[in-house]
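Lecture 7, part 2: worked example. A protein chain together with zinc ion.
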Amino acid sequence: MQPRQAYEELTRKVKEEAVLASCVEVLGWDEETYIPGAGVAHRAEQQALLAGLLHDRATDPRLGELFAALEGSDLIADPDSAEAVNIRELRRLYDRAVRLPRSLVEELARITSIAQREWVTAYERSDWSYFQPWVEKVLKLKRAEAAALRPDHDLYETMLDEYEPGMTVRQVAALFDALRGELIELTGTIAASPRRANLSILHRSYPLDRQRQFGETAAAAVGFDFRRGRLDTSPHPFFARLGPSDCRITTRFNHHRFGDGLFGILHEVGHALYEQGLDPEAYGLPIGESVSIGVHESQARLWENTVGRSLPFWRHFYPQARALFPDALHDVSLDEFYFAINHVAPSLNRVRADEVTYNLHILIRFEVERALVAGDLDTADVPGAWNELYRRYLGVIPANDAEGCLQDGHWGGGLIGYFPTYTLGNLFAAQLFERASAELRNLDDDFSQGRFDRLLDWLQQRVYRHGQRYPAPRLIEHATGAAPDHHPLLAALRRKYGELYRL
Ligand code: ZN
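Predicted complex, written out as structure tokens:
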């Protein structure tokens, strides 16, 4: 077979698979937004069947023949060409898929679909022991999956590799070790400062319809394309790409919590800008797909925090916020408002954590997960281990499981090895923004004028358009000139919070 012919057959098959996979996305989106409780059991069957069908296609022996025909061909001569990247990444996925028995794939889809729902019940009852058997089941299946994928390899690293290909547990642990002490110290220094934000202003009356209006305005201003996406509400904000021109985001609004709705939107908008920036023509092919969860998260964090919680951003948006929420903000100055949305304090809740303490929440989950997978921690002992780490790193202790180890549903969904990507996202975001600021100059002036196009364009050129051309660590190096590094994040936090808290 001619390599060109093999390549065309390969991409045709893979694009079809992407269409089928996008149906799974639609079901998942519905499951997180509007499905009635009684619909879950049938949905689990749908998910299991589709996972099986996708697995059949992903392991089709014909793919193996096509890869054989492409081996050593001119198409892969330049390793950074679109063809070579597609072949390399598709081959990686194929090698991965053929190692997994179909029964295991289906069982994982079925169990995680139910376990996610059981987590909601456990959370409502604040009872870890209710959720524990489900974590046990998921953990067993994920261990089996990792062992099948890479026998004799560190199980946790194989799990991490699903979300952050190209990074080792060693690299991640080294970055996290470099952050831990510095973040604990910075949190302590801030706590010792006499400066205090007036948080009550964020809990005044913020009518929901106006919050939505304001959020949509901000989303459109930073570049979210509403013709190719929409905003809904769900208990847990998320994004989903249902097709090349259909990117869904969700948030949750609370009348007395200004930040929940808006920053939830900006976070998911960041994810969406990445997805909307991918090449629609290459939909379903690696060159047109996001590269890793860490890089994805970096975009969410960058637009939510680096941009959305910056003073220049609010120089532009605060007058609009005041006009929309006169009852809440008529007597609040821009500086007071800016301080309130950037207030730092150790807390129990990851999602609502500030930029400084956020990564400590992730470091805790990283330690707990690694111990669980290694068998050093029994699932029954998770609450104790969790609470002890919160006491040590953040000086706070959860009063119950809902406040503690039940706050995140990730493990029920099979997302083990996923948490580190949040902090990798913060690290990548800081590194990218530091470089963009140095090259573009005066980004602050842009933001103050409500202009975000130069930054978005820079990210488009350096990150989005590359799809999976480079593995994440190389992409970061390519974009910024340096390998993943903890210094830009620490420097940015020290600068911003040093000014706010007059340290
Ligand atoms: Zn995110």
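The chain has a mean pLDDT of 96. The longest helix spans residues 3-33. Keep this in mind for problem set question 3.
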